[in-house]
């Protein structure tokens, strides 16, 4: 296992361009601008109501109480109570709407990333760890939850409160306002430093979380547990996981403590400001400065206290946003992944596919630096015909088969289906036309019926049973206590290899594709199980164009045409009998099979 391995894709240079990143973040909220406008109105109304309270208090202290105006006192007190009620109601409504918007943005991001990954070529997943992909969707997007659900609203709310409060403070006494705001630039500078520091640590932390998630996914799968225990590596894997977890502990502590002392200084200074205001007003009164009424001082301190909470929150929000930029950047990296296999702007749709497949001077390379995996392959499979592709390991057999359903795209030449380049066909036509049964059968952790219906969601029970009978697996399923409702287990581990293979064949029969790719579908099975699976394959292959990639030559002797690949090129072609007569590479492979057969 390789916990330090990352995807080979690197983000483009402009992924770190902050203005562009901000534009992309704001674009996420564009579909919900109507709701956000309502939130803005509620924030403004809440701020105005909150600012009104100190002015009501000033009138109580300077007018209502000194002059004994009981009626005015009652009205002002009632106004203060009403202000608190309105502020609370506006706050609840604001939270409801902003949280809903934030969760919708989270949903959009998750869906966009998942949809992007669904469109990636097979090559991307062969070089990227599953845990890394899962971490981007779960941890990175989950880590942004606070930002998109509450931080944005908090930013607007606190900024509005700060502006309204400062305006009110200036209206009361501009000189005291200047004293109160002298240190504000220093506070902003400190918060920006803290934000940048946390952003760097957050990037490291998310990478470590992705590495740990990948280790968990690999080592705690059924296959991983079997490998770890049979190799006696349980303690070693536990120690490795503990080491990664220890590194994550360190990063979490650093992330939470980054700038804590600096932010604590800001909190202390702002909490001490009321004392500074009392001291300043007292000195001014003692040394003949401008007179300030008691009501004005109390109202000003009340405003200042009201300023304290949103100002500190605003600085903390700035830090949170800086931290979240690292998460957004990781998500945008996946959204910017280049898609190798795309649909044409105006793709060809075939309502009925006959099944003729042609490989015309096909060339394929995994990358520009490596040599060709396939080079000049030219083969025709007529509709309803059968082609067997054989050859040594690494000859390019599976790659050739995967070009038909466009799991890869050719880098030279073309592959056609009924005379149409598969790159010109729409994805729906290809999905309906080409079925693949591979050696590595994948079954979901769901019931047998749900796994079969993945191929045809609307299939009836009778159709399921018919497909299972054709695949020689119905009797076994029916004998299970829960029948077709039996849960197959993680990756189908409740079933044997042959049973899983027959379930996969039944699933493909249910889909009924006119073209079938069999990628070494029986190579991992024993001779007896292979015979049962081969019967199912024969039923599946009837009246279909079949391309069989085979390791065991006993399964391909009846093919209409056999092609021998060697180093990506066609070395021989012909029927079984013709190739044996030539006594070339195919005949050598047959003799090798005959020698291996007694050992099973």
From TrEMBL:
Ranges of residues in domain ABC transporter: 357-592
Regions that span the bilayer: 36-57, 69-97, 162-190, 264-287
This protein's GO CC annotations: plasma membrane
Places the protein is found: Cell inner membrane
Keyword terms, alphabetized: ATP-binding, Cell inner membrane, Cell membrane, Membrane, Nucleotide-binding, Transmembrane, Transmembrane helix, Transport
Any one GO molecular function term: ATP binding
ABC transmembrane type-1 domain boundaries: 37-323
Origin: domain of life: Bacteria
A family per Pfam: ABC_tran
Bilayer topology annotation: Multi-pass membrane protein
BP term (GO), one: oligopeptide export from mitochondrion
Major subcellular location class: membrane
Family: Belongs to the ABC transporter superfamily. Siderophore-Fe(3+) uptake transporter (SIUT) (TC 3.A.1.21) family.
PANTHER family the record matches: ABC TRANSPORTER B FAMILY MEMBER 28, ATP-DEPENDENT PERMEASE MDL1, MITOCHONDRIAL
Protein name: Multidrug ABC transporter ATP-binding protein
